[in-house]
Design brief:
The protein is of the alpha+beta class and 173 residues long. Helix 1 runs parallel beside helix 5. It has five helices and seven strands. Helix content is 36%, strand content 16%. The two termini are 23 Å apart. It has a single domain, classed as SMI1/KNR4-like (3-Layer(aba) Sandwich), CATH 3.40.1580. It has a seven-stranded antiparallel β-sheet with strand order 6-5-4-3-2-1-7, sandwiched between helices.
């Protein structure tokens, strides 16, 4: 298990687990992309839910219903990113080569994406698109689990959202 996932679980007091009904091959075929191993490790520990009252995460291997919810949000976030790209000429959007790939959303409507700079998904970094301004993107050099760990352990507003993170919890849907 990824030690960063263990640190996230400890930070939010999560001792639960998930029993996936689907396998990653099924999910990756449906999405038409491979996914980072740290994301898969996180999803083997956490069901769909809300992290620290700020980040909504659908677990696509949890069940057919969760895969459907993930795909609905995935498609919606891709469409928003396409509209932003058309207006502001920002990041390419999946399935274009190097196009951003969504994986989560904040509770205010912002979106978390992977930026696939290489063909190795374990080298992908996270970018965040604010709901408040479609041309407001924050680029990191961090993996998905590193970003989530930063969110659940940050003091003040020193995190990708720029939010004061006072709640340290995980609430399953």
């Amino acid at each position: 298990m990824n030690h960063v996932v263990d640190r996230i679980a400890a930070a939010v007091g999560w001792a639960g687990s998930v029993s996936p009904e689907l396998d990653w091959d099924t999910v990756e075929r449906r999405l038409q992309t491979v996914l980072p191993s740290d994301y898969k490790q996180f999803m083997s520990r956490f069901p769909a839910g809300v992290l620290s009252d700020s980040v909504r995460i659908h677990n696509p291997v949890q069940s057919d219903a969760q895969l459907a919810s993930f795909v609905d949000e995935f498609d919606l976030k891709l469409e928003v990113a396409r509209l932003s790209r058309a207006e502001y000429d920002l990041y390419e959007v999946f399935p274009a080569p190097g196009g951003v790939i969504p994986f989560a959303a904040d509770v205010a409507g912002g979106s978390f994406f992977w930026l696939p700079r290489t063909s190795d998904p374990d080298e992908w970094h996270v970018v965040y698109q604010s709901r408040d301004s479609p041309d407001d993107w924050t680029t990191t050099e961090l993996s998905m689990t590193a970003v989530l760990l930063q969110l659940v352990t940050s003091q003040g507003t020193d995190n990708i959202l720029g939010w004061e993170m006072t709640e340290r919890s995980f609430e399953p849907f």
